[in-house]
C-alpha cells in the first residue's frame, strides 16, 4: 500500500513537471497528458515496474519495460533510479541504463542516451544531479557524474564528469559558460551556446594575421595577399524561442 501511495505521488509530480516545462501542455487536463504524452507514459510505466521489482516480482518489471519501449520509443531499465518531477520531452529514442541515477527536476529531450561503455559490471551508467537539462541527441556514457544545475547541449557526447552549473557542448563535450553567467533552469536555447572550438580557431586566425602584419613591417615589404575573414557569432532570432 505504501508503494502504491508513493507511485501515485510521483506520478502527480511528473504530470506537474510536464505541464510546467512543456508549452504544449498549458491548459491541458491531467487525463490528456497521461494518455497523450509519451514521456509521461514511459515514466509512469517505469514507476510501476520499479515498484514491482523492489517487491521481488519476477518477469513483470522487464515485461513492462519492453512493452513501454515498443509503445513510446523510450527505454528505461526497471532498476534505474529516477527522482521526482522528471520530464522527458517528446521522448522518442531516449535510453536510460540499469545503473543510471537521476536527481530531482531533471529534463531530458528526445534521443538522449544515458549509457555504459564496454562490458564492465557494477556502476556503469551516468549519475545526474538535481535541475539538470540534457539536449536532444546527447550521449552521456559511463559512470560519470553530472553536477546540479548543469546543461548538456544537443548532440553532445559526454564521457567525463561535469561540474555543477556548467554548460557542456561538442564532441567530446567541453564545459563552457553562457555570457559568463551561471546557468539558470531548464533552457532549450541550444543555438546560442558558445562553441569553444570555433573560438579557438578565431583566436588563432587573429594571431596569425597579427604576426603577418609584424613580419611585413619588419621586412619593409607588402602584407600577405591572403584574404582575411572574420569569424562572427551567429545572430538573429532563436528557433528555440530565445
Task: Briefly summarize what is shown.
With 242 residues, the protein is an alpha/beta fold. The protein is built from five helices and 15 strands. Helix 1 (2-21) runs antiparallel to helix 3 (38-54) and helix 3 (38-54) runs antiparallel to helix 4 (60-72).
Question: How many helices does DSSP assign?
Answer: 5
* CATH homologous superfamily descriptor of the largest domain: Hexapeptide repeat proteins
- CATH architectural name of the largest domain: 3 Solenoid
List segments where confidence is low: pLDDT < 50 over at least 5 consecutive residues.
none
Mean pLDDT: 84
Euclidean distance between termini CA atoms:
45 Å
Largest sheet, strands/sense/barrel: 6 strands, mixed
Count of domain modules? 2
Helix content: 25-40%
Describe the fold and architecture.
This protein has 242 residues and is α/β, with parallel strands linked by helices. It folds into two domains: 2-192, UDP N-Acetylglucosamine Acyltransferase, domain 1 (3 Solenoid); 195-242, no CATH class. The chain is 33% helix and 15% strand. It has five helices and 15 strands. It has helices at 2-21, 30-36, 38-54, 60-72, 196-219, and strands at 75-76, 81-82, 87-89, 95-96, 101-102, 107-109, 113-115, 127-128, 133-134, 139-141, 145-146, 151-152, 157-158, 167-169, 174-176. The strands form three sheets. It has a six-stranded mixed beta sheet with strand order 3-6-9-12-14-15. β14 (167-169) and β15 form a beta hairpin. α1 (2-21) packs antiparallel against α3, α2 (30-36) crosses α3 and α3 (38-54) runs antiparallel to α4 (60-72). The model has no long low-confidence stretch (mean pLDDT 84).
